[in-house]
Structure to design on (244 residues):
């Protein structure tokens, strides 16, 4: 029996944008209600966004929130500088959204310098990874192959149309992980059965979910409790070098 793992939610947005908002206090209340220890946080990435709100949130909720910064590689110099500066300030990872910002994740000239800054800083990447053209599973396999020291989390596990391809590429790519936010139980069960629990990481994508349900759905994944513990926090704690 694996015990002592923290539960860590890998995917949460803070701030305000048209049609959605979530404050740090609102998120921490959801963590408390569900019994979740920690949560990775980054801004909404539509339109303009500011990583300073994440720095403020983490300061206000010490020990509960893990800061990631979002960047748009089309502002390339600014994005590279932002990754380096935020890493210095204690941010642990970077959020990318190729579909919203309009680039191929595997575009070496555009995204390569950002990922080089990520590698130098020892950060983790979480990237939107539904089955859209710009961030389809082969795009992840290409960048993960170019940056083998960096862990890449494919948010939404390539659902729906590319899920089996995502599993196949995660199997072939040691540093590619499938993140479970808004992924149905059937697909998560398949991921864990095919890859083992070490390659699957739990996230919610709050505020766009019924938070308690996203936590509880993992109980319905057809694997043992030890595997669920790894998926719901043990794996991410290891990638972020957090003590459990
Ligand atoms: Zn999201």
């Amino acid at each position: 029996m694996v015990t002592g793992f923290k539960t860590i939610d890998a995917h949460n947005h803070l701030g305000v944008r048209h049609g959605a908002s979530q404050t740090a206090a609102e998120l921490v209340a959801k963590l408390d209600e569900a019994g979740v220890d920690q949560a990775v946080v980054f801004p909404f990435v539509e339109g303009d966004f500011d990583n300073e709100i994440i720095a403020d949130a983490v300061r206000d909720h010490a020990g509960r929130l893990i800061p990631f910064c979002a960047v748009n590689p089309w502002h390339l110099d600014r994005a590279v500088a932002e990754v380096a500066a935020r890493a210095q300030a204690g941010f642990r990872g970077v959020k990318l959204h190729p579909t919203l910002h309009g680039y191929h994740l595997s575009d070496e000239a555009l995204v390569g310098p950002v990922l080089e800054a990520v590698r130098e800083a020892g950060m983790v990447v979480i990237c939107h990874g539904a089955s859209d053209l710009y961030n389809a599973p082969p795009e992840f396999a290409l960048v993960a192959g170019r940056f083998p020291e960096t862990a890449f989390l494919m948010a939404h596990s390539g659902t729906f149309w590319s899920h089996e391809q995502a599993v196949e590429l995660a199997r072939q790519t040691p540093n590619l992980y499938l993140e479970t936010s808004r992924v149905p139980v059937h697909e998560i069960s398949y991921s864990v059965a095919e890859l083992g629990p070490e390659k699957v990481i739990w996230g919610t994508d709050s505020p766009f979910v019924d938070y308690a349900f996203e936590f509880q759905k993992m109980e319905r994944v057809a694997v043992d409790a030890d595997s669920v513990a790894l998926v719901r926090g043990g794996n991410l704690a290891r990638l972020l070098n957090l003590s459990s």
In short: DSSP finds ten helices and ten strands in the chain.
